[in-house]
Write a sequence for this structure.
């Protein structure tokens, strides 16, 4: 068995994501231009050196339980290779526990780091990366856009997780309102019912289909396309401030939805001017402070490159 070459270093960049997008529960995801960036180096001796700056720096573990390290170990084990000692330097801009895919990004970052360190020995292709990421994260709707960028449709079949990447219409301008409180994804998932009426199911099927058209061809349809009856209203009780902002924005014509499991709010604006108007609304309708982040749709997804000193690639 080969091992990652001591001294090899890779730089990884992974985008934030927003999943569900209203009606696309556990299926649709969007990559956003806020990034966690890491440099991972294989050490000549066993052990871990972890340095984290930015979002979550004071809270994330600095041992083998760090999610990036766990994902790396998972990839090395799946490849039948021993994981070397690791130095991890991470700078995070994706908020933790806010519904912007921080855990999915960490999983993808670890897998891409392993891919880079094992390059030339083990081929971790896109299908394998998506499978490993889904096994770690539990659902493909966040990890697919983090891996591949753009708008992704994710589903499971007898061969495992699958995805389709689509390009978003250039008129769609994402805006995320980030609060100073967090929400547990597992708690949020537990609030959604296990069964829904046929009428609600048909309603969401129609809106999910419409949302694909709105995001790729017809942004003027985003308001109707982001209506949902499967999960957002049930989660409202646990996130009253989020529910208040979503309702206020939608009442004024903005296509606002809960970002992922919340508590952040995603607005799919039809142009940059509409984003400024949404920020003005948010400042007047709620006592909760919301940090507006005007982002673009990331089209590349996660990237890994050789960062070894003296490398030409």
């Amino acid at each position: 068995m080969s091992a990652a070459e001591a001294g090899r270093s890779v730089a990884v960049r992974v985008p934030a994501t927003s999943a569900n997008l209203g009606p696309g529960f556990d299926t649709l995801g969007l990559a956003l231009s806020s990034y966690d960036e890491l440099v991972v180096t294989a050490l000549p001796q066993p052990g871990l050196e972890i340095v984290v700056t930015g979002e979550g720096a004071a809270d994330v573990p600095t041992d083998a339980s760090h999610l990036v390290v766990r994902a790396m170990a998972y990839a090395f084990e799946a490849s039948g290779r021993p994981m070397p000692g690791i130095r991890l330097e991470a700078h995070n801009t994706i908020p933790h526990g806010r519904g912007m895919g921080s855990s999915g990004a960490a999983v993808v970052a670890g897998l891409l780091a392993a891919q880079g360190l094992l390059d030339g020995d083990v081929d971790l292709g896109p299908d394998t990366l998506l499978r490993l990421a889904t096994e770690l994260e539990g659902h493909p709707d966040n990890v697919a856009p983090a891996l591949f960028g753009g708008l992704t449709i994710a589903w499971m079949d007898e061969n495992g997780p699958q995805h389709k990447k689509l390009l978003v219409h250039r008129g769609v301008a994402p805006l995320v309102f980030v609060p100073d409180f967090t929400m547990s994804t597992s708690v949020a998932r537990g609030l959604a019912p296990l069964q829904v009426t046929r009428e609600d199911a048909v309603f969401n099927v129609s809106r999910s289909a419409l949302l694909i058209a709105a995001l790729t061809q017809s942004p003027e349809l985003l308001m109707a396309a982001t209506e949902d009856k499967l999960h957002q209203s049930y989660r409202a009780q646990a996130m009253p401030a989020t529910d208040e902002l979503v309702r206020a924005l939608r009442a004024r014509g903005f296509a606002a939805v809960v970002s992922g499991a919340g508590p952040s709010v995603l607005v799919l604006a039809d142009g940059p001017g509409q984003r400024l108007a949404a920020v003005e609304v948010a400042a007047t309708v709620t006592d909760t402070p919301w940090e507006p982040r005007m982002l673009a749709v990331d089209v590349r997804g996660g990237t890994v490159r050789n960062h070894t000193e003296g490398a030409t690639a």
Observations:
- The two ends are 25 Å apart (CA to CA).
